[in-house]
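Anyone up for a design puzzle?
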């Protein structure tokens, strides 16, 4: 199809602003999916996405739409191809979103009319603007009784410096305004253009034979067909049987199949410049495909699309199989997950008490939860997961410098000269009445507060939760403290009205120590963590009480202790299970019962000396989650 009849766009928004629901209505209106096959969140294919109501993996879809003739003469019986990429809203996946935005010419900026502009909206919008995308502002959920259309419109006008008439109103639930939105997509978003005119290869000017440059914005893995890459073709064309090359990983492969998404995979003869689709590579080894790489012809390679980077993990956790015999199965499962998620990394490690396992790197806490949940669901594995940590740079007293990824390997205080940890730059958007609470929260989490600016109505004319009564707070904070339940505490402190976005900043000196939890006088490596020295006693007490409540009673009494700064700073004793060994007896001399009780007492003592404490899998998971 002619490039002028193609529109490539994405939907960007904060979590739970209705991206997937709006996409559902678009698929219905364009008849991409039959009504009988329609279901809620149709583009969210994973059970985990549907359960949580969030988008984890971005999903492209191709729609055919015939708009009405506009005043500018656009449409009028001519068919247009609309390529939509539904992107995740969570900050953990911001790199994937940034590459998806490189695959489109415009974006729908979707803002919930009941909540207004959120912090993550600002982050994603900044990415779209950097890419020079055409932004179409849209307010969703206008059918809700809590909708504040006029106030949120003012926020958007200030944010984008646009005319109020440019802001569209839609309801993903009822479908109101969605057809008009599709008309505006055709009208406002520019058609794709080839990045540079293709050279003369086997023909005259304008031929695309033997020329290809396609940006990889996502991929998945199939047991039968290997890695399937999702691409936006920037220049030239690609067909089945072409010999291709990954520009970054330098891997050569043959295209087994090419096609588009409707939204299921639909094979086609070829994909040409402007198209969004997929290429089946047949590759079955990890580390080859990665988001942001460029695919080009092997015989006539074009330069890679600029801006590629490998996402760096910010959160680390060690994963061990509950049964040592499952180690090989866990290794295979991690390899398969790596084939469908290039941002996830892992390497082998061993622990004296937990055996052999893997140290895994994640983009954030949500990414960690998703990977561990997929390991349990898709591969039926029983796992022990250590407390999540970040990377510390430690300078020892002997002058040696080490990078510490696991709290269990954090050196004792006596050997440490200096510790450095990463800090993050925060932006918090909140109604003004919660600023005092947030300042206290930032202080409790070692935050440094920067500038605060009014957002929406500089003169502050309104005193509601609306546009004129919100502020943006800039702050700096240790990443360690951000992971210490800061997201949940912010939501609680602001009654759900506050939102946050962050980016990784510089390394700074840290005043931290290792906290170990001992069960029956034995350190459990999975529960070790690095904490602030100021909070060591509080953290130890909280962790010991929590483990005491979670751990099932054993056959013998045992101690649960928190150790930091070279001493035990918190302790609880959990009584063992008891059985009345004399219940079957009746009458007779009391000494008979005393003998049995004495025998039981000796058995309990021997069991305490030799017995092992069984810690169920769910206890490790609940200790990892701050909300439990």
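Challenge accepted. My sequence:
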């Amino acid at each position: 199809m002619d490039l002028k009849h193609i529109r490539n766009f994405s939907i960007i928004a904060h979590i739970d602003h209705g991206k997937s629901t709006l996409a559902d209505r678009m698929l219905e209106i364009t008849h991409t999916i039959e009504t009988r096959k329609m279901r809620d969140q149709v583009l969210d294919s994973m059970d985990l996405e549907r359960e949580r109501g969030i988008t984890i993996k971005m999903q492209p879809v191709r729609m055919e739409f015939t708009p009405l003739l506009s005043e500018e003469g656009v449409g009028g019986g001519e068919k247009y191809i609309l390529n939509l990429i539904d992107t995740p809203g969570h900050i953990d996946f911001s790199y994937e979103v940034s590459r998806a935005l490189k695959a489109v010419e415009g974006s729908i900026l979707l803002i919930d009319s009941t909540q207004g502009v959120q912090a993550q909206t600002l982050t994603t919008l900044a990415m779209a603007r950097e890419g020079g995308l055409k932004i179409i502002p849209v307010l969703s959920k206008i059918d809700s009784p809590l909708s504040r259309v006029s106030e949120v419109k003012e926020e958007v006008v200030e944010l984008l410096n646009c005319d109020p008439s440019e802001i569209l109103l839609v309801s993903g639930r009822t479908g109101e305004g969605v057809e008009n939105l599709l008309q505006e997509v055709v009208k406002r978003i520019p058609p794709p253009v080839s990045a540079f005119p293709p050279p003369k290869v086997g023909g005259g000017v304008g031929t695309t034979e033997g020329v290809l440059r396609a940006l990889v914005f996502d991929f998945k893995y199939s047991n039968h067909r290997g890695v399937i890459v999702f691409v936006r073709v920037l220049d030239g064309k690609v067909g089945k049987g072409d010999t291709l090359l990954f520009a970054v990983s330098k891997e050569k492969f043959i295209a087994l199949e090419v096609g588009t998404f409707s939204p299921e995979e639909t094979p086609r003869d070829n994909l040409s410049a402007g198209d969004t689709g997929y290429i089946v590579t047949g590759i079955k080894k990890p580390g080859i495909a990665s988001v942001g790489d460029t695919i080009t012809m092997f015989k006539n390679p074009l330069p890679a699309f600029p801006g590629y980077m490998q996402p760096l993990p910010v959160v680390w956790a060690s994963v061990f199989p509950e049964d040592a015999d499952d180690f090989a199965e866990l290794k295979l499962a991690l390899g398969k997950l790596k084939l469908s998620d290039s941002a996830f990394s892992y390497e082998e490690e061993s622990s004296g008490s937990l055996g052999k396992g893997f140290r895994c790197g994640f983009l954030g806490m949500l990414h960690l939860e998703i990977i561990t949940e997929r390991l349990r669901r898709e591969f039926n594995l029983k796992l022990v997961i250590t407390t999540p940590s970040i990377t510390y740079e430690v300078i020892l007293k002997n002058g040696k410098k080490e990078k510490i990824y696991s709290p269990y390997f954090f050196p004792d205080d006596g050997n440490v000269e200096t510790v450095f940890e990463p800090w993050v730059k925060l932006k918090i958007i909140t109604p003004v009445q919660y600023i005092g609470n947030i300042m206290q929260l930032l202080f409790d989490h070692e935050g440094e507060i920067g500038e605060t600016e009014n957002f929406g109505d500089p003169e502050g004319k309104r005193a509601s939760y609306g546009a004129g009564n919100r502020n943006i707070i800039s702050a700096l904070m240790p990443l360690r403290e951000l992971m210490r339940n800061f997201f949940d505490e912010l939501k609680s402190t602001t009654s759900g009205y506050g939102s946050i976005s962050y980016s990784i900043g510089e390394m700074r000196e840290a005043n931290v120590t290792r906290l170990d939890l001992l069960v029956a006088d034995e350190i459990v490596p999975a529960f070790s963590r690095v904490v602030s020295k100021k909070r060591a006693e509080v953290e130890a007490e909280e962790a010991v009480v929590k483990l005491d409540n979670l751990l099932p009673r054993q056959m013998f009494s045992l101690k649960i202790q928190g150790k930091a700064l070279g001493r035990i700073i918190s302790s609880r004793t959990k009584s063992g299970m008891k059985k009345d060994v004399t219940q079957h007896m009746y009458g007779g001399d009391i000494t008979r019962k005393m003998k049995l009780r004495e025998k039981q007492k000796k058995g309990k003592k021997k069991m305490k000396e030799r017995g092992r404490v069984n810690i169920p899998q769910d206890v490790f998971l609940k200790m990892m989650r701050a909300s439990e």
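A detail worth pointing out: Residues 41-45, 198-206, 458-468 have pLDDT under 50 and may be disordered.
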